Each structure stands twice: as structure tokens, then as C-alpha cells.
Amino acid sequence: MKLDASVSAVITGGASGLGEATARALAAQGVKVALFDLNEEKGEAIARELGGVFCKVNVTSDADVDAAFARSRAAIGQERILVNCAGIGNAIKTASRSKDSGEIKHFPLDAFDRIIQINLVGTFRCIAKSAAGMLSLPGLDDGERGVIINTGSVAAQDGQIGQAAYSASKAGIAGMTLTIARDLSSEGVRINTILPGIFATPLMNAAPDNVKAALAASVPFPRRLGNPPEFASLALEMCRNGYFNGEVVRLDGSIRMAPR
Asked: Which domain of life is it from (predicted)?
């Protein structure tokens, strides 16, 4: 797909981190962008800077997502690109014993469900609704109507202690990628998933310097945290390269996460 002003894109989680970097990279190519996020102040500011539109969205809400797509399409047209970066994490063991009292507790199921609802169901909600919109578009020269890019995590394959919910949600995103590619193949819509390693996102940058240094040292090469523009670069290649479809790709400096 040629990236220019004839193309519109929706980026969930577009007000920070990997989503913001991807929105900036797409806008630099002339693509019209809509940012879906909960951070209204930052999202509005970035959208103004990029000449795009901001939509406040909770991806667990059908009503929010429907309203956001309606607003973005009215402002910049039907999107040909969807990049899903919205997501959260937590760290709770499946079952554990208190060091102080010896009390045994299990993973609270509402906390597990929240991660699944935001990361996995929320991603699929946006995929399904965006893909339905893409089907209304005329095909480009090669018949392509659109492209979808998801954000997984290396935790889908090497989840650490306490990441049962997060790993399950990201493994679900990876696992549904090929199936969705097959579902949409006859309509000219492609889908791929990126599994980023340890990236210098705002959440990671808030960690103490010694923690960040230790994490950077755990990456085989290059021995540093990933930079969000590197994620954006791969996302843009997935958009441009029409033969890139149904793939789950690690972007991690060859790291394999230890148990903790």
C-alpha cells in the first residue's frame, strides 16, 4: 500500500508510546490519522500537531468504539489502516503464599478478566469493526482494501512470573492473526502482529535508572531498550509490503525473557 494523503489510519493507544510513534510515522508520510485513546489532553494535543483527529475511547465499550469510528470517518474518511496499540498489564501470580502471614491467595479473576477484555477482546472489537468498514472501500490496483497491525508482546511466547493474564491476552492476539488473515483474504484486507520486546515507552521510562540499565543489559544485541520509532518502522513496512500477511513477528533484539 502506498502511504500518502489518500490513506486514512486509526491508531488505538495513539496518545503515547508505540501508538504515538506509529501515528507520527504515518502522518510524516502524509497519511491522515485518528488517535483512539483515554488520555484526552495528550491525545488532543498530538492530533492537533499532526493535523488529525482525537477520539476518547475505552476499547472495552461497543458504544465508545462505534462512536469513535463514526467520528474519525466523518473527519478523515474510512480508514485503510488500523494499528492496535491500546493495552495494559499486571503482575499477579496464579496462586501464592503471603511471606508475612502464610495466607494463600489465587489470582483474582476480575483482574484476569480485565486484562483479557482490554488487550484481547478490545483488540478484536476494533479489528472486526474496522474490517467491516474497510470492506466498503474500493480495492486498490492489487485489490487491497486495507491492512491491520496488532501489538502483541514477547510475553506471548516467554511470559514471566506473574504474567499469566498478560501472556494469555497477547498469545490470543498472536493466535488469531492467521485466522483473521484467512477470514479477510477474499476481501483484500491483510493483518499482521508485532511482538515487541522491552521498549522505552513512558511506562518503562518511569522506572528507576538502575532497573532500566539492567533490562537494557539483558538484551543480546543491540544492548539497549527498543525505541518506539523502531516499532513504527516495522508497522509502516507491514503497511507498504503487500505480501506481508498473516505473520507474527518478534521485534526484540533477540531477547528471550527469563522467568523473572
From this structure: Bacteria
